[in-house]
Design goal:
Shape of chain B: elongated
Order of helices and strands of chain B: HHHHHHHHH
Oligomer: heterodimer
Radius of gyration of chain B: 18 Å
Structural class of chain B: mainly alpha
CATH class of the largest domain in chain B: Mainly Alpha
Strand content of chain A: under 5%
Helix content of chain B: 55-70%
Radius of gyration of chain A: 38 Å
Largest sheet of chain A: none
Helix content of chain A: over 70%
Number of strands of chain A: 0
CATH topology of the largest domain in chain B: Arc Repressor Mutant, subunit A
Number of domains of chain B: 2
């Protein structure tokens, strides 16, 4: 059985079930002890609710943001590269290797006679016919995009290092 | 403009690369986070360090924040864990401390109390003084319940305990706070006489 105080706190907080709420409400109306205690706890509840929050220093937000900026600048570049790009490049090269393998295997004359000097006969593909094809053009286009991306990453890295150095030297000057 | 945005909107903007959105989020919650940190720390400097650490940790793992939950519940759980870790590191016993020991510990806390300026002291001063004398867990539950607008379930989530345990702890914490408040006021009345 809960104490009077516990029952009343549950009633004030609204954590007791509807039947209990009703019963306690009736007790407050009829019982002087309950009524007195209820008033006391209600006053305490109001006092606790009016509790004041502590005020952090004025530069708190600035300090946190400065720490985040510094941490961001110090982060190694490889940790900032989007993993989807890395996976995409991996997939691209995987597909090229698979395509070459399939092409090589497809060009093998499996029906060639086993007896005799030559066991298999490879037909070396004529690569020059692919050089002017749309596949080659798109491959070259992809290479250019990749090169531009690497250049962009390099320039960003350079810029970040420059910013970080100036932030560090600025901090030391202070 | 940013003050009108919800926490979730500010999080989305932060994740999109807008750092000023995160600054707005800090401004919105810094007072409560700092107050929670004060419940564990011995000084304002320590509390500032804990609060700062919490916001940096929250920024780092903002992507992992589940939008279904309240941002404040998630943030306060970071504050609670960080503050507890800091306490453990500093080897301050948080449990099994009897009232007398707690009283001695908190008496060293800078409270801004000026004996010559007794008349300026308000009821809220005594309340804050009494909260400072509580154990960190009790003070945290009281603060989360009354100022953090957290339900018993949310407090349970923050502190990593059952909601029923929170209910019992809240009841005990309120009793202790009431006792401390009365004791401090009696002590003050004696001083005045």
């Amino acid at each position: 059985m809960n104490s009077i105080e516990e029952q009343l706190w549950n009633y004030i907080d609204g954590t007791s079930n509807p039947e209990e709420q009703k019963a306690i409400s009736l007790l407050i109306e009829q019982d002087e002890v309950y009524r007195k205690k209820y008033k006391e706890l209600l006053a305490l509840n109001a006092e606790f609710s009016a509790m004041e929050l502590d005020e952090p220093p004025m530069a708190f937000t600035y300090n946190v943001m400065e720490s985040i900026r510094n941490e961001h600048a110090m982060q190694p570049l490889k940790a900032r590269v989007d993993q989807r790009i890395v996976k995409g490049i991996g997939l691209f090269f995987g597909l090229i290797i698979s395509a070459i393998l399939i092409f090589a295997l497809a060009s093998v004359h499996w029906s060639a006679p086993v007896s005799g000097g030559n066991t298999t006969h490879f037909v070396i593909p004529n690569i020059t016919k692919f050089l002017s094809s749309p596949i080659m053009e798109s491959f070259m286009f992809f290479d250019i995009v990749l090169a531009l991306y690497i250049l962009d990453v390099y320039l960003r890295k350079k810029n970040l290092t420059k910013t970080y150095t100036s932030v560090q030297s600025g901090g030391q000057q202070k | 403009m940013q003050s009108k945005l919800s926490d979730t909107d500010l999080i989305e903007q932060t994740l999109a690369g807008d750092q000023s959105a995160y600054a707005a989020l800090i401004k919105r919650h810094q007072r409560f986070v700092f107050t929670l940190a004060m419940r564990f720390a011995k000084s304002r400097e320590d509390a500032e360090e804990i609060a700062q650490d919490c916001f940096i940790k929250a920024y780092r793992s903002l992507e992992s924040f589940q939008r279904q939950a309240k941002f404040t519940t998630w943030l306060y759980s970071i504050v609670y864990t960080t503050a507890m870790t800091t306490l453990r590191k500093k080897r301050i016993a948080t449990d099994s401390i009897d009232d007398e020991e707690t009283f001695i510990q908190v008496e060293n806390k800078p409270s801004g109390y000026d004996e010559n300026n007794v008349e300026n002291k308000s009821r809220s001063f005594y309340l804050n003084q009494a909260i400072d004398q509580l154990l960190p867990d009790d003070a945290t539950i009281i603060t989360l319940f009354y100022k953090g607008e957290q339900s018993l379930e949310e407090i349970a989530q923050t502190m990593g305990i059952e909601a029923n345990t929170v209910k019992v702890k809240l009841f005990r914490a309120r009793q202790r706070l009431k006792d401390k408040l009365e004791r401090n006021l009696k002590h003050e009345a004696k001083e005045l006489i």
